[in-house]
């Protein structure tokens, strides 16, 4: 355990020391009580951080994904495999008892005796029990339990990843709907400008070049509208796939939810909350326990053995021959290159697991810091975009009043309206990016 603790401290030394909080100590739950998924673990899997967005369609999509997504089903099946591996590891330390029955023909000849027929029917039983004096089997069982814990956190990480992907796709859908509405308004305004310029060109008071330039601008809006509709349809297909083929409802909404202030976690809580880190930490424990088991395999092993066999001339009759044996056995390894090689292999696996744990911590910290930086920047950009929209809205109102009073041309008014609509489109994109940054931060914080 000292070697394990030192390795975890080294993995996080760049963050100011040993801040890793074991899920064992934080939960206060004895892992020996595990049968399937422990109650505290089920509670963690049922965390619904996405409900804070207040979107019923998003909640329905995630519920469908948790029940129908095949990728999540694969990860859940791996947890079942880990549960079975724990039972298998524990079974090795239990006594085994076998019974057998068979038929044989033969004769036996001994010195000073004539040949006689052997009893053709035979039966027997064997009992074998390895007493785990060295703790090798207990270490292997503990390794399987840590692997089970890692499989559970993998499932939690997969659900967290799936929920974040669905939330991002759902909010992308709303953003595309908002952009479609804005582009439709922009296309309508652009068409009015083209019509007005055509009338002026016909009257000889506008240049043909201006008409063609505005027509190209109008065609650009139409092209963008077609492309955004394509992206909207692809997003619906993506949502349908993520939810396991379920019907995607509410595909016309265009309003995006507001996000509150992001949560803040100390280093120790972050390391004990992110499922990716917890899974990597559990794999480190599992690897060290396997290495420990391999080292203990060099010590003598003690077994209790018992066997009994009998033979008779009839399957249902009384047996006429009996043999029974009982006694302990001690296996003392002197030189076993296979066991020595296994220790080297397990030690290398421990180093790999420790390196992966450190990489997981660095990756999660990068995700948290990046998401926070993006959130602060997006909020500032959004505030600037909203200020721009308010200014353009005032300019648009003034231009419309001047146009109604005959003080300005329709071209100037329509150009002001076009820039106002483009600023609204930028605002919708920033709001969606802000939501994505919030989702990424929630995922990095473990939900």
TrEMBL record:
Species assigned in the record: Oceaniferula spumae
Keyword Signal tagged: yes
Alphabetized InterPro entries for the sequence: MdtP/NodT-like, OMP_efflux
Similarity comment: family membership: Belongs to the outer membrane factor (OMF) (TC 1.B.17) family.
UniProt keyword Signal present: yes
Signal peptide from the UniProt entry: 1-19
Name recorded for this polypeptide: Outer membrane efflux protein
GO MF annotation: an example: efflux transmembrane transporter activity
Alphabetized UniProt keyword annotations: Signal
